[in-house]
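The records we work with from here on pair a chain with its fold. Taken together, the tokens spell out the fold as the letters spell out the chain. The record below shows the convention in full.
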Amino acid sequence: MSATSHISKVSHTTIHKVSHTTTVKTTINVDEERLTRIKRTAQNLYGDSRSLSELFSDAAESFDGEAILEAFAKEMGWDEIPYPSLREIEERRPTSTEGSEKILRDMRDGRANRIS
């Protein structure tokens, strides 16, 4: 087995903050080299040695779009945010009587004319 085809994995148990009062315990598998880089980056960013739980909780939080949107709405003073359903999104999409192939071809031709 070549050195590049072998990847060592390390399992770590981490507690993720799900809400303000509830945490869940989970196990994740992370490449050992990647985990070393994550720890080094955290040390550089935060200047201290945060626990793995804090690091992964922060990372998971950055992917929580709903919480980010709710925090933004709160900061803006909005009482509620209407979340449209997929059907509502599809119904609001603009439609064209032309085929998409023609629209794309026209856009590409227009770009080609502008840059040539």
Q: What stands out?
A: The chain has five helices and two strands. The CA atoms of residues 27 and 45 lie 25 Å apart.
